[in-house]
């Protein structure tokens, strides 16, 4: 087994010594307060061994990474029927695109675009009596950490400025693929994106996707083996929007990014790895996060390919 700690330390040091590029996500005002030079890494193996470097205990905003968890909640209840409401094709468009929605009659190409995740939130409002609590319970259970919380200031900040998502939700509703009140759907979506997390918690949270859908300690089965395979496939093909192909090419792992600067990825059967650095490239993905993961899978030769 590779010496993960020294490899992580080496890459972390090397990247810190280089110039950092990109901008913090300013379109959610509350996120622009963060120190742009923060940089944390965690890796946890399916044997439960944890490796860390840098700011791995600092909290940041989960943002789009939550879309994987929202999808899991809907998919476990509806199975394949969910795909009548949202597709599983890479979009090739930015995360907040109105793109092909009119042509596709309001069925978003995949559940990780904003439009797709907003439709999933609409589905969750019908499936769960209290979807916010159900999500938080699931997150805490998977991460084995009861301290994880929503950040109401981040949610309010996005709600105040979230014109694009308001447009997306209304457009999809006009095409018949949102059934609940648009404000209620968006409020749920903004709340879910606001979860505060650190890279260690994020790694624990995503270990199920590396471990056949099951948690390590409790052997709680979130998804069956086949569902886990499919979730990982969607992460690989759609997890990085119009940079998904590049991420597969450079890194070679299923993963998901968020505009809080977090990226989480898994090597099924082996580990989950989370990186956080708030400066984003022009596609909305963490500049240093991508750099770190590319070097990590290149050096260790551990990827799905
Ligand atoms: O809806 C939004 O724009 C944000 N709450 C989430 C977007 C996001 O994280 C895109 N990821 N890279």
How would you describe this structure to a colleague?
The strands form two sheets. The protein has a five-stranded antiparallel sheet. The mean pLDDT is about 95. With about 300 residues, it is α+β, with helices and mostly antiparallel strands. The longest helix is centred in the middle third of the chain and has 14 residues, at about 115-125. It starts with a helix and ends in a 5-residue tail after the last helix. The chain contains eleven helices and seven strands. The chain is globular and about 55 Å long. The protein is about 45% helix and about 10% strand. It has helices at about 5-15, 65-80, 115-125, 130-145, 150-160, 165-175, 180-195, 200-210, 225-240, 245-250, 285-300; strands spanning about 40-45, 50-55, 60, 195, 255, 260-265, 270-275. The protein folds into two domains: about 5-65 and about 195-225 and about 240-300, DD-peptidase/beta-lactamase superfamily (Beta-lactamase, 3-Layer(aba) Sandwich), CATH 3.40.710; about 65-195, Beta-lactamase. α1 (about 5-15) packs across α11 (about 285-300), α4 crosses α8 and α6 (about 165-175) packs across α7 (about 180-195). 6-diazenyl-5-OXO-L-norleucine (DON) binds near residues 63, 64, 257 and 259.
Helices and strands, in N-to-C order?
A: HEEEHHHHHHEHHHEEEH
| Shape-level CATH architecture of the largest domain | 3-Layer(aba) Sandwich
Percent of residues in helices comes to 40-55%
Mean residue pLDDT: 96
Shape type: globular
- Low-confidence segments, ≥5 residues, pLDDT <50? none
Total DSSP E strands: 7
Rg, Cα atoms, Å: 18 Å
What is the CATH top level name of the largest domain? Alpha Beta
Which molecules other than protein and nucleic acid are bound? 6-diazenyl-5-OXO-L-norleucine
What do we call the CATH homologous superfamily of the largest domain? DD-peptidase/beta-lactamase superfamily
Strand order of the largest sheet: 2-1-7-6-5
Total DSSP helices = 11
CATH fold annotation of the largest domain: Beta-lactamase
Largest sheet: 5 strands, antiparallel
Q: Which class do the helix and strand fractions yield?
A: alpha+beta
């Amino acid at each position: 087994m590779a010496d993960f700690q020294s490899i992580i330390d080496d890459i972390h040091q090397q990247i810190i010594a280089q110039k950092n590029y990109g901008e913090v996500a300013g379109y959610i005002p509350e996120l622009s307060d963060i120190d742009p030079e923060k940089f944390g890494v965690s890796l946890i193996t399916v044997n439960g061994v944890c490796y860390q470097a840098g700011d791995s205990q600092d909290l940041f905003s989960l943002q789009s990474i939550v879309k994987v968890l929202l999808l899991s909640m809907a998919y476990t209840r509806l199975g394949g029927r969910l795909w009548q409401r949202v597709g599983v094709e890479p979009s090739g468009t930015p995360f907040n695109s109105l793109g092909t929605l009119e042509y596709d009659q309001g069925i978003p190409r995949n559940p990780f675009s904003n439009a797709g995740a907003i439709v999933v939130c609409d589905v969750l409002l019908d499936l769960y009596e209290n979807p916010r609590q159900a999500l938080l319970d699931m997150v805490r259970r998977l991460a084995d950490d009861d301290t994880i919380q929503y950040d109401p200031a981040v949610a309010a900040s996005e709600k105040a400025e979230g014109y694009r998502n308001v447009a997306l939700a209304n457009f999809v509703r006009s095409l018949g693929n949102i059934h609940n009140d648009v404000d209620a759907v968006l409020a749920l979506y903004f709340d879910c994106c606001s979860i505060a997390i650190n890279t260690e918690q994020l790694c624990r949270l995503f270990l199920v996707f590396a471990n056949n859908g099951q948690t390590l300690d409790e052997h709680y089965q979130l998804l069956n083996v086949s569902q886990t395979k499919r979730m990982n496939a969607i992460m690989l093909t759609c997890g990085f929007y119009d940079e998904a192909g590049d991420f597969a090419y450079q890194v070679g792992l299923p993963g998901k990014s968020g505009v809080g600067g977090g990226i989480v990825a898994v090597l099924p059967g082996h580990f989950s790895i989370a990186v956080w650095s708030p400066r984003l490239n022009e596609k909305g993905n963490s500049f240093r996060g991508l750099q770190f993961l590319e070097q990590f899978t290149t050096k260790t030769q551990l990827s799905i390919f």
